[in-house]
Write a structure and sequence with these properties.
5-stranded mixed beta sheet; single chain; Molybdopterin-dependent oxidoreductase; mainly beta
């Protein structure tokens, strides 16, 4: 992994003149939120899978995933509950890197992320296929804590954080739209923080 940190904290300029989205408060803390608590996982048993509308389905052990080409990025993090944390340093595999390894088919239009606790969340492929969307295993130079989604979570700095599954175990490429856990329960499917797209 490169020791250079790619700074993406100017991402907000695509959406607004203000780095802090409306309705958010800046915090230096990193609160822990999940739908049902932190699940157990075991390094020897953990697997990450890629399937669906791809040329090659993939399966990685924990060590194999950490051996993939990776990078470190500085990003902002926006929770739908109203807080934002600036300058988070995340390390892991970018979505485009993983998509290239799997060979995404031309008819793939949507992505569903799957997590160890049964959580799912969806995004259009076009919203995922950008360098800032990452599968993260390190945070601020240390292994990602379990309560923040370790061993692996997705980060989506251009969306509210519920679009970034914690404890992620796989990504499914879809030809038709499906809704994830919170999206089925009334949360916004687009989740743009600068438009305050919190609920449908």
């Amino acid at each position: 992994m490169s020791s250079e940190v790619a700074d993406h904290t100017d991402l907000y300029e695509e959406f607004s003149d203000e780095r802090l989205p409306p309705g958010q408060r800046k915090t230096d803390r990193f609160p822990v939120l999940s739908k049902s608590g932190t699940p157990d996982w075991h390094r020897d048993d953990w697997r990450f899978e890629v399937w669906g509308a791809v040329d090659e389905e993939l399966t990685y052990t924990y060590d194999e995933f950490r051996d993939l080409p990776a990078e470190t990025q500085r990003q902002d993090f926006h929770c739908v509950t109203g807080w934002s944390k600036f300058d988070c340093e995340f390390a892991g595999v970018t979505f485009p890197q993983l998509a290239e390894l799997a060979g995404v088919r031309d008819d793939a239009e949507w992505v569903m992320f799957h997590a160890l606790d049964g959580y799912t969340t969806d995004l259009p492929l076009s919203e995922c296929d950008r360098e800032e969307v990452m599968f993260v295993y390190d945070y601020d130079g240390e292994r990602l804590p379990d309560d923040h989604g370790g061993p692996l979570r997705v980060v989506t700095p251009h969306k509210y954080a519920y679009k970034g599954a914690k404890w992620v175990t796989g990504v499914e490429f879809l030809t038709e739209a499906e809704r994830g856990y919170w999206e089925k329960r009334g949360y916004s499917d687009t989740a743009n923080p600068w438009e305050e797209e919190r609920y449908s």
